[in-house]
Write a structure and sequence with these properties.
With 382 residues, the protein is α+β, with helices and mostly antiparallel strands. It is 46% helix and 14% strand. It has helices spanning 5-8, 84-93, 114-133, 139-145, 148-167, 178-191, 226-231, 235-250, 253-261, 264-272, 278-289, 302-311, 317-329, 332-336, 338-341, 345-351, 364-371; strands at residues 13-19, 27-33, 37-42, 47-52, 57-58, 67-70, 78-81, 174-175, 203-207, 214-217, 221-225, 377-378. The strands form 3 sheets. The chain has a 7-stranded antiparallel beta sheet. It has a 3-stranded mixed beta sheet with strand order 9-11-10. The chain has a two-stranded antiparallel sheet with strand order 8-12. Strand 1 (13-19) and strand 2 (27-33) form a beta hairpin. Helix 5 (148-167) crosses helix 11 (278-289) and helix 8 (235-250) crosses helix 12. The longest helix is centred in the N-terminal third of the chain and has 20 residues, at 114-133.
Length: 382
C-alpha cells in the first residue's frame, strides 16, 4: 500500500525560528508533522503550538529563504524555515499553500482578477432578480461563486467573532493541551480518514466555553466547545458529533447557512471577492449564536452521517443518545442539528445496524487527554 505524504514525513524534523507576535526576538524551535497539524516545540521538546495543516498561510514565496508561515490569516505568529526538505514536505502535504503566497521582489505579479470579480457581481445581481421573480432556490448557484479563499477567510473571522461573543469581557480561548490536540487529531482521522477524501481541508478547534455546542464554518472549520466535550460520556459520543459536522461540510452546508442568513445585497459582496462588511459578519454571527429548530435549516443527512460512523467501525447509538440528552437539557447543539435529533426511520434502516467490526474511537489514555485539552489555552488568533 502506498504511503500518504504525511506518513512518509512522519519522522521529518527541521529547525526554524518562531515569532510569537508579541516579542521581537525569535525562539529557536523544532518543526515536525502531527496527524493533521504542524507541531512546533522548543529545543527541549516542550510543545509550543499545533498549527492545523488545513489553515496554514504562506507569507512569502518559495524563491527566497527563509520561507515564512503562519497558522492562519488572523494570527500574529509565524515561523521562518530554511530547511529545503521540510519546505518541500510542507509543499507536498499542503499543495495549495504556495498558490496565494506573495511573489518575490521583482517578480511579475499575477494578472488582475477584476474581470472575473465583475462577472461575479453581475451574476449575483441576476440571481437576486431570479429570486424576486421565481421560487427557485439558488443558494447552490451563489455558493459556487464564492471564492474558496474568501470562504476560508470568513471561517477564520467568524471563529474570532464567536470567541469574542462567548467570552464576555475576555474572548473565549482555544484549548491547546498538546496531548488533547493529538487525541483530537486521532479522533478526526478515525471518522474522516484521508483515503476517503472527507478530511480534505477539515480543521477542528476546541473553544473553552461551557455552552454545549458544535458548529461548522465555511472553509472546512469545525468548532467544538469544552461544554460539548463535557457532555460526552465516551469518545464514541464525540466521534458521532464529528461525523455529523464532517458530513455537513462535505455537503457544502456551512456556506448555505451563511447565504441563508444574508440579504441579496450581501450576496454580491460575498461572491465578488469584496468580502462582508461588519454588518454582514454580524448577521452571520447571530445565525450561529441563536440556532433554531427550523425544518428548512440546512442539516446534514442523517443516513450519510450514520453510514460514515458505520464505515469507521463505530456504533450510531451513542450519537442518538447524546443528542437526546442535549435536547432534554435545551443545549444549543440540539437545536442546531434538529435533523439529527429527529432521526428518521429511513436513516436508522440505512445505517442503524453496524456492519464494520467495532473498535473504540479512542483508547482510555487518549480519551482522558481529550478531556483535559483545555488545561492549556491560547488566544483564538493562534
Amino acid at each position: 500500500m502506498a504511503l500518504t505524504a504525511l506518513e512518509r514525513y512522519a519522522k521529518l524534523e527541521a529547525e526554524a525560528q518562531y515569532f510569537d507576535g508579541a516579542n521581537g526576538a525569535p525562539l529557536p524551535v523544532i518543526v515536525s508533522f502531527g496527524a493533521r497539524s504542524l507541531m512546533i516545540a522548543d529545543i527541549d521538546e516542550r510543545s509550543i503550538a499545533h498549527w492545523p495543516l488545513a489553515s496554514l498561510v504562506a507569507q512569502s514565496s518559495l524563491s527566497r529563504l527563509p520561507v515564512s508561515l503562519a497558522p492562519d490569516r488572523a494570527s500574529t505568529e509565524r515561523i521562518e524555515l530554511k530547511d529545503p526538505d521540510m519546505i518541500a514536505a510542507i509543499g507536498e502535504v499542503c499543495q495549495e499553500l504556495w498558490q496565494s503566497a506573495p511573489s518575490a521582489p521583482g517578480a511579475q505579479s499575477a494578472p488582475p482578477q477584476r474581470r472575473r470579480r465583475w462577472l461575479w457581481v453581475v451574476l449575483a445581481v441576476v440571481l437576486g432578480a431570479a429570486i424576486a421573480a421565481t421560487q427557485v432556490d439558488v443558494r447552490a448557484l451563489v455558493r459556487d461563486l464564492v471564492p474558496p479563499a474568501d470562504a476560508a477567510d470568513l471561517g477564520v473571522r467568524q471563529t474570532a467573532l464567536l470567541a469574542a461573543a462567548w467570552g464576555g469581557d475576555q474572548p473565549a480561548q482555544r484549548c491547546a493541551g498538546a496531548d488533547g490536540v493529538q487525541a483530537l487529531d486521532l479522533l478526526v482521522a478515525r471518522i474522516a480518514p484521508a483515503e476517503t477524501g472527507r478530511s480534505a481541508g477539515l480543521t477542528v478547534l476546541v473553544l473553552d466555553h461551557p455552552r454545549a455546542d458544535a458548529l461548522s464554518l465555511p472553509g472546512g472549520r469545525v468548532i467544538l466547545t469544552s461544554g460539548l466535550l463535557t457532555a460526552g460520556t465516551s469518545p464514541e459520543d464525540i466521534a458521532g458529533v464529528l461525523a455529523v459536522e464532517a458530513t455537513h461540510i462535505s455537503q457544502s452546508h456551512p456556506l448555505d447557512e451563511v447565504i441563508a442568513a444574508l440579504p441579496v445585497t450581501d450576496w454580491i459582496a460575498l461572491t465578488s471577492g469584496a468580502g462582508l462588511d461588519a454588518d454582514g459578519q454580524q448577521s452571520v454571527l447571530q445565525a450561529y449564536l441563536n440556532p433554531s429548530a427550523d425544518p428548512d435549516r440546512p442539516n446534514p443527512n442523517a443516513a450519510e452521517a450514520f453510514a460514515n460512523l458505520d464505515q469507521a467501525g463505530l456504533p450510531t447509538a451513542p450519537l442518538r443518545a447524546l443528542m437526546l440528552r442535549l435536547q432534554a437539557a435545551g443545549a444549543p447543539y440540539a437545536a442546531r442539528r434538529a435533523g439529527i435529533v429527529a432521526v428518521s426511520s429511513e436513516a436508522e434502516g440505512a445505517a442503524g445496524t453496524q456492519t464494520a467490526p467495532f473498535q473504540a474511537a479512542l483508547g482510555d489514555r487518549d480519551w482522558l487527554a481529550l478531556g483535559d485539552i483545555c488545561e492549556t489555552r491560547v488566544p483564538i488568533s493562534n
